[in-house]
Design a protein that fits this description.
By secondary structure, the protein is of the alpha+beta class. Helices cover 20% and strands 28% of the residues.
Length: 347
C-alpha cells in the first residue's frame, strides 16, 4: 500500500497552536463507520452519546519534561536533546533515574562529546547507535530527576511554532499519573475533571492502561510501501485487575471505547480471541488498513498528520475512504487539527 494514499492537504491556519479553554469546548466530529453518517457537535456533547453500557479506556501516562537545552563544552555551541528512555532497562523505568539514557539530539552529537546543561548537570555521549545516542549524566537518582525537572520542557511537536507558557502547562491530560511519555496521549486532552465527574455520574465505567508514548511519535514514515515501515517500540502495561474488568465488560456486551490510538494499541496487542491477557512489555504493533480489530468497538481520537501511522490506524478502524471524507468535511468546516485541535468520535 503506497504512502501517497494517506496524504492530504491541510491549510496551515488549521493547525491548532494552543488548546481551547475550557478543553471540553473543542469541536467533535461524530462518525458512524457503519452508515457513514457525520454529525458536528462540541466535545461536552459526548456525554449524550454515552450510557452505562459503555466503557471508556484511557492512557494514564504522563509527559516528562524530556527536552533539555545545553551547550557543547568545547565549542559552546547550542545543543538540544530529547530523553527517550533509560538504557538497558527491561522494564520502563522513570523512577530510579539512572545515569545512562537513550536520547536523540541536534545538532548531531559525536561519541565523547561533553554537554553542559547547567553548572550542576553535565553529560557525556558514550555511544552512537543510528540516530540515537547514549548519554551518561554526572548525576543519578533524585538529584538527576530534580535537575531535569528544573531544566527540561515538555517536548511539544514541531508544528506548534510559537509555544507559550500555557502551551507547556496544558500539554498533559487531567488524569495523567505515570511519568514516562515524551509526547502526550492527546485524545485525552478534551476531558475536563468536571466532564469526567458527569460521565461517572451516569455509571459509565472508566478504566486505565499505560503506554509510554515514545520516539515513534516524532518519526515520519519514510518508506514508499507502508508495509515496510518499522514502528518504534514503546512500553505498555495492562494490569491483571483491569484486564479482568474489561473482559467482563466485553462478556456483558458493553461497548469498549478507546480514548486515543495508544489505548487501541495496548488493547489490541493484549487481545487473544477477543479476550485480554494481562501484559507488560514493549510493543511495535503497526495497525494499518487490512488489520482486523479484536477488542476495540469505538474510538475517540484527534485529527492526525498526513502520511502518519496514526492516520493509517484510524483508516484501518473506519475505512480509508470514510476517514478521508470526514477529514475533508472537517477542513471545509475549519476544524482545528493535530495535538491541540478538535476531535472525532468514531462509532
Amino acid at each position: 500500500m503506497d504512502i501517497s494514499l494517506f496524504d492530504y492537504h491541510l491549510p496551515k491556519e488549521l493547525i491548532a497552536q494552543e488548546p481551547i479553554e475550557p478543553r471540553d469546548h473543542s469541536r467533535l466530529l461524530v462518525l458512524n463507520r457503519k452508515t457513514g453518517e457525520i454529525k458536528h457537535q462540541h466535545f461536552y456533547d459526548i456525554i449524550d452519546s454515552l450510557s452505562a453500557n459503555d466503557v471508556l479506556v484511557f492512557n494514564n501516562s504522563k509527559v516528562v519534561p524530556a527536552r533539555i537545552y545545553g551547550k557543547k563544552a568545547n565549542t559552546k555551541g547550542k545543543v538540544e536533546i530529547l530523553l527517550i528512555r533509560p538504557q538497558d532497562k527491561q522494564v520502563f523505568d522513570f523512577v530510579s533515574w539512572p545515569q545512562d539514557w537513550v536520547i536523540i539530539g541536534k545538532p548531531e552529537l559525536k561519541k565523547d562529546q561533553v554537554i553542559e546543561f547547567s553548572d550542576k548537570l553535565k553529560g557525556t555521549i558514550k555511544e552512537e547507535i543510528g540516530y540515537e545516542r547514549i548519554i551518561c549524566f554526572n548525576k543519578q537518582g533524585e538529584e538527576l530527576k530534580q535537575e531535569i525537572v528544573s531544566l527540561g520542557q515538555a517536548p511539544l511537536p514541531p508544528y506548534i511554532t510559537q509555544p507559550t507558557e500555557r502551551s507547556f502547562e496544558e500539554y498533559q491530560t487531567v488524569y495523567a499519573e505515570k511519568h514516562g511519555s515524551v509526547a502526550a496521549p492527546t485524545a485525552g486532552f478534551h476531558f475536563t475533571k468536571d466532564l469526567l465527574d458527569k460521565i461517572q455520574a451516569k455509571n459509565i465505567q472508566l478504566e486505565f492502561v499505560t503506554l509510554y508514548v515514545g520516539l515513534g511519535t516524532f518519526l515520519p514514515v519514510k518508506v514508499e510501501k507502508i508495509e515496510d515501515h518499522q514502528m518504534h517500540s514503546e512500553f505498555f502495561e495492562l494490569s491483571k485487575e483491569t484486564a479482568q474488568r474489561l473482559n467482563q465488560a466485553k462478556k456483558d456486551k458493553k461497548r469498549i471505547i478507546a480514548v486515543g490510538t495508544t489505548v487501541v494499541r495496548v488493547l489490541e496487542v493484549c487481545a487473544q480471541n477477543s479476550e485480554l491477557e494481562s501484559k507488560q512489555g514493549w510493543t511495535n504493533l503497526f495497525i494499518y488498513p487490512g488489520y482486523v480489530f479484536k477488542f476495540v468497538d469505538s474510538l475517540i481520537t484527534n485529527f492526525h498528520l498526513p502520511k502518519s501511522t496514526l492516520l493509517m490506524l484510524v483508516s484501518a478502524f473506519a475505512s480509508k475512504d470514510l476517514i478521508f471524507k470526514a477529514y475533508q468535511e472537517a477542513i471545509d468546516k475549519k476544524y482545528r487539527f493535530f495535538s491541540f485541535g478538535d476531535s472525532m468520535f468514531i462509532q
